From TrEMBL:
CDD domains: 2-Hacid_dh_5. It holds the Pfam family 2-Hacid_dh_C. Residues 140-211, 247-339 form the D-isomer specific 2-hydroxyacid dehydrogenase NAD-binding domain. This is 2-hydroxyacid dehydrogenase. SUPFAM superfamilies: NAD(P)-binding Rossmann-fold domains. GO terms for molecular function: NAD binding; oxidoreductase activity. Transmembrane segments: none annotated. InterPro entries: D-isomer_DH_CS1, D-isomer_DH_NAD-bd, NAD(P)-bd_dom_sf. Keywords: NAD, Oxidoreductase. The keyword NAD applies. It comes from the Eukaryota. It comes from Grosmannia clavigera (strain kw1407 / UAMH 11150) (Blue stain fungus).
Length: 376
């Protein structure tokens, strides 16, 4: 089937647009597709047609890919909100893509992304709260030795008060946040509440108050929109600049940078050696993407004691094979890329879409637009 070009004007407004929503169906708390939301949205924007398809096949209950949707679903689609990047042939007329994910990495090689007429927006900020909670959770788990006590519970032995003599509190500790976007800013907020000192690292310099502001989607009363929390800011796009940041006696390093060609392997043998100038002192947490950290270098750092330990919600490869040596590396805690999940996650994704539809209809700048030069 050849998709017909939609009949819509060239100015602001959504008349003639076709919006396709294809996202996972939450297990509880939502009735998706939401017929009421569809009706209200079409009424709010006359001439807009909304199609909402659940990821799970209604007949089988099994997840399906974009290619498995009926062909007519893709007819004339100009606006897309999807957790998956469909083949370019299915969306020849698309002009706007709302990705629920924080990063744009799954779109970077897509033909639609390369088209200068197509705007891609991410879900940056919609899951900053739960990811930041995951970061603080694993940090406190490490500092308070929760895993050790959990093991004592299983065996019923060695469960003594003196085992807690090396418990460490967070007050006065220093956290370095590599990538100071929505996630990094909420981590900074929580760390500040624990009495920690925050250092931030960004690709470009943030020397002015205006440069330090963040205009991403933000849950009310969260984050650091004005960029006021870091005690020190660092910046750069080369190894020397990054190493200077890593040499700042960090107790906690939170990796929250987007995955691009530049950030792939950003933390490797050289960087772990810098962290190792204080052996077994820095706890490394990765909530970015697995390839941002070189896995072999990380394992060496764990095994040699260059770093204190690591908590990984993402790995390279991902999923991590059952026989991979990283599972048995010392002082490592791994979860299967779940830090972004919460009962409010998909509702916020819908809020993000609503906000951009509103701005698009009014001819206003959209939120979370990906910079195609830097790919985030």
């Amino acid at each position: 089937m050849v998709s017909q070009a939609p009949n819509r004007g060239s100015g602001p407004g959504l008349a003639g647009d076709v919006l396709l929503i294809f996202m996972p169906t939450p297990d509880a708390g939502y009735s998706w597709p939401d017929a009421g939301w569809i009706a209200a949205t079409e009424a709010r924007y006359p001439g807009l047609q909304v199609r909402w398809l659940p990821q799970k096949d209604p007949a089988t209950g099994k997840p399906r890919t974009p290619e498995e949707l009926p062909a007519e679903v893709w007819e004339g689609v100009t606006l897309l909100c999807s957790s998956w990047a469909p083949p370019a042939r299915l969306i020849p007329h698309v002009r706007f893509i709302q990705a629920p994910s924080a990063g744009a990495d799954r779109w970077l090689l897509h033909e639609a992304y390369k088209d200068p007429r197509v705007t891609l927006c991410t879900g940056n900020g919609t899951h900053a709260t739960q990811i930041a909670e995951w970061v603080i959770g694993v940090w406190l788990m490490w500092r308070h030795r929760f895993l050790a006590f959990a093991e004592h519970m299983k065996t019923g032995s060695g469960f003594e008060k003196q085992d807690a003599h090396d418990v460490l509190e967070s007050t006065g500790s220093r956290v370095g946040i590599l990538g100071y976007g929505a996630i990094g800013r909420q981590v900074a907020r929580l760390c500040t509440g624990l009495g920690m000192e925050v250092y931030a690292y960004t690709r470009t310099e943030r020397a002015t108050a205006e440069a330090r502001r963040d205009e991403s989607f933000r849950v009310p009363n969260t984050g650091d929109p004005a960029g006021e929390l870091p005690a020190r800011w660092f910046h750069g796009s080369d190894a020397a600049a990054l190493n200077g940041f890593l040499a700042q006696d960090l107790d906690l390093l939170v990796v929250a940078a987007p995955l691009t060609a530049v950030t792939t392997g950003l933390l490797n043998t050289e960087q772990f050696a810098v962290l190792g100038h204080r052996p077994a002192s820095t706890y490394v947490v990765n909530v970015a993407r697995g390839p941002v950290v070189d896995t072999a270098a990380l394992m060496t750092a764990l095994e040699s004691g260059q770093i204190a330990g690591a908590a990984l919600d993402v790995t390279d490869p991902e999923p991590l094979p059952a026989d991979h040596a990283l599972w048995k590396a010392p002082n490592v805690f791994i979860t299967p890329h779940v830090s972004w999940q919460s009962q409010k996650r998909w509702g916020r994704a819908l809020e993000m879409l609503e906000l951009n539809l509103q701005r698009m209809a009014a001819g206003e700048p959209l939120v979370n637009v990906v910079n195609k030069e830097h790919n985030y």
